[in-house]
Amino acid sequence: YGEDMRPQAVANMLMENYGSICRSAGLRITPQRTGIYRILAASDAHPSAEAVWAEIRQSMSNVSLDTVYRTFRLFEKLGLLKRVDTGLERARYDADMGEHHHFTCIKCGAIIDFRLEGTEMVRLPEEAFRLGAAKSVCIDVKGICSACGMADAAK
Questions:
Q1: Whole-model pTM?
Q2: pLDDT values of the chain reduced to their tens digit, one per residue, 155 residues
Q3: Per-residue exposure over 30-43, b if at least 16 CB sit within 10 Å of its own CB, e if not
Q4: How far, in Å, CA of 21 to CA of 112, rounded?
Q5: Long-range contact pairs involving 81-86 (C-beta distance under 8 Å, separation at least 24)
């Protein structure tokens, strides 16, 4: 993943959280599950199941794509992972469960995290309050990332 790596301290924190949640749920911590989660925890690229499978097979050739998908579903249920809706052909996943939002490049497919300043909630329209009680807000921006924009400008 190269430049799409999370800082090591963040990846370590996510791995500690993984162990705690698995133990609390009474879930066996298998080498396959740990390897899959380690890839997710280390990556800021919001990888697809296929990308994680390609990576895990370098060290565990017996892990199937089906195992990766089943493990992702389990991790989603445990709150260790969330699916990022990109509108792209493949689902992408994020191990960062903290409050943040995504910018998706419609050209290269990059998904970039961003956070709002401070702890203020996004101002919702009145209609949202008539519909129900909002518990969270997710902003998903689609556009052309700065790298693609610069590459287009250089042409």
A1: 0.84
A2: 345 778 889 899 999 999 999 999 999 999 999 999 999 999 999 999 999 999 999 999 999 999 999 999 999 999 999 999 877 678 899 999 888 889 999 999 899 988 887 655 677 888 988 999 887 788 889 999 999 998 888 88
A3: eeebebbbbbbbbb
A4: 26
A5: 81/40, 84/46, 84/111, 85/140, 86/46, 86/111, 86/140
**Contacts (Cβ under 8 Å, ≥6 apart) of 101:** 113, 114, 115, 116, 138, 139, 140, 141
Let me know: does 145 contact 103? Beta carbons within 8 Å.
yes
Q: What is the DSSP string of the chain?
A: -GGGBPPHHHHHHHHHHHHHHHHHTT----HHHHHHHHHHHHBSS---HHHHHHHHTTT-TT--HHHHHHHHHHHHHHTS-EEE--SSSS-EEE---SS-EEEEETTT--EEEE--STTPPP---HHHHHH--------EEEE--HHHHHHHHH-
